[in-house]
Amino acid sequence: MNLHFRAEGKGKTIVLIHGLFGSADNLGLLARELKLHYQVISVDLRNHGLSPHSDLFSYQDLAQDIIDTLDHLTIDQFDVVGHSMGGKVAMTLSALAPQRVNHLIILDMAPIAYKGHRHQNVFTGLREVNHHAITKRNEAEQYLARYINDPGVRQFLLKSLVKTETGYQWRFNVEGLITNYATIMGWQPASQPFIGKTLFIKGQLSDYIEPQYRDAIMTQFPNAKAHVVANTGHWLHAEKPDTVNRIINQFLNQ
């Protein structure tokens, strides 16, 4: 799997991993600051962005893709930042290559299996768009609005809608993500804990990291530290990029 990626800056390597429905651009506000001091590798995960599609979509697959990309670039040691689903990819990466990960930074995600279906309305909206011949972006937003009330979520999704010779299409693999949704929400702990430097950054208003998850976090990441960003939700890095960048830089310098 040859992932699409963007490399910026010089210095020690830090890998940025986006979440579900995202792309390399989603952590761009972090990359803009980090590239002043690091070589920043921003990846499109498989089934997202400009990377290839595949029916195989386990966290082991996603993490191995990144290892293969770094091997191709002859990068041995690196730091990693993962948001949401990308956080689980980053955690899996630390299990597959623990000696290569210097700092592990997880943005608003816990190493647990989440219950319920958090994205049913999103998938329904994406499928609704696919059922129509879209010639204008605002047509797609109108179909999404039937199921997705939040205009911010609609605009986020529309970043992955691109014009082709046959009309507008989603860059991410809608049906592949639906098929693998249980895997995306699930979690299989590694056989050995990751004892490296680890930081979990939580959005105060988000429910992705809750107090009852502390035992699971500390069992799998015994040296983990935590930081809460006040008055932010799941998209903390977009809501308060300066704050999140400051927290990340302080941790990287430890």
UniProtKB/TrEMBL annotation:
One of its GO terms (molecular function) is hydrolase activity. Residues 14-246 form the AB hydrolase-1 domain. InterPro entries: AB_hydrolase_1 (IPR000073), AB_hydrolase_fold (IPR029058), Epox_hydrolase-like (IPR000639). The keyword Flavoprotein does not apply. Pfam families: Abhydrolase_6. Keywords: Hydrolase. This is Alpha/beta hydrolase.
